[in-house]
Write a structure and sequence with these properties.
homodimer, transcription regulation (chains A, B)
Chain lengths: 190, 190
């Protein structure tokens, strides 16, 4: 755990620069040197703060997400899903998809990128989704033994993966809202 | 459309060799020269028959699938899904996943591989799945206006994509059967 020597504003600035570079040159060609040059910081600072390129990139992605599933609590499961879907605008969603497409390519050759994605992005979001669903169970919206409960991540990931592969269209708010209403809620018995 | 000059046995032999090579060296390093050498055929024959490396690889994958969705018709939707799931044994499923992982990597750099995958593998399977679902509607198992109907591909692709990403486990018959019973059928109102 490196002690933070950066202000939150400076950290956000750095993350934004990393994402810009990532979009411009891709993960392979993104070097700590390039990040240091672009952000006028020293490589030593970058390594002290983040340890590795993989960690820096994934933390930048995580910082860029406008909504974390764990932070959402509207009082109903439908409200929670809609909050997540509608707080990310379509343009941002398109940008995220492009970045993730680029990263999914890089993941094949970089086990530490995969590990960082799992630890810093996928696991926390799965935990957040788990809490969201648990609250729905506690409120009596979903039966605790509903067999579809463990599969909500699979349904949601399928929406993103198949939208491009099958429909050849980008994911947007209208599609995700319809998908949640047509698939996720009926499967959960809501 | 090249006229077929190969017996079905010879064609299967060629496809098997292509898949072996694909597993050994990956899509990038797989050359028509290597296929010609391995199968003791001429490059001219390969190009006459398949036109391109992308087409040859995708046709080999398609030939290797033990079940095509369009061929399945057991008289009930659950029977159809189970037939698809259980006719592919777990070992074959693991092998297919490894091949598709390798290919999903190559797809990023090869638009013609992506096009061939869409035209020769994804589209026909989507058409087959569509017929399977239409028969369920015709039999009265699923209401024709069920909003989850267009999303069955998304649910199924999610099962495969999320199994490795979230669960870090390979897809097998037990998982797929449970997923279909827990997610797909309830969403379809069965």
């Amino acid at each position: 755990m490196a002690r933070s020597r950066l202000t939150p504003e400076r950290e956000s600035e750095l993350y934004a620069a990393v994402l810009d570079l990532l979009g411009e040159v891709g993960y392979e060609a993104l070097t700590m040197d390039a990040v240091a040059a672009r952000t006028r910081s020293s490589k030593a600072t970058l390594y002290r703060q983040w340890g590795s390129k993989a960690e820096l990139v994934v933390k930048a992605l995580r910082n860029d997400k406008p909504v974390h599933l764990g932070d959402v609590d509207t009082g109903s499961l439908r409200g929670d899903f809609l909050a997540v879907v509608t707080r990310t605008d379509d343009c941002q969603m398109e940008k995220n998809s492009a970045l993730l497409r680029g990263l999914s390519h890089a993941v094949h050759d970089n086990p530490d990128l995969f590990q960082a994605l799992r630890d810093l992005l996928i696991e926390p979001e799965m935990t957040g989704l788990g809490s969201m669903l648990q609250r729905a169970v506690d409120r009596g919206e979903v039966r605790p033994d509903n067999p579809a409960l463990p599969y909500v991540p699979h349904m949601m990931i399928g929406a993103f993966a198949a939208r491009e592969l099958v429909d050849c269209q980008p994911v947007d708010q209208a599609f995700l809202t319809d998908y949640v209403d047509s698939v996720v809620f009926p499967a959960l018995g809501i």
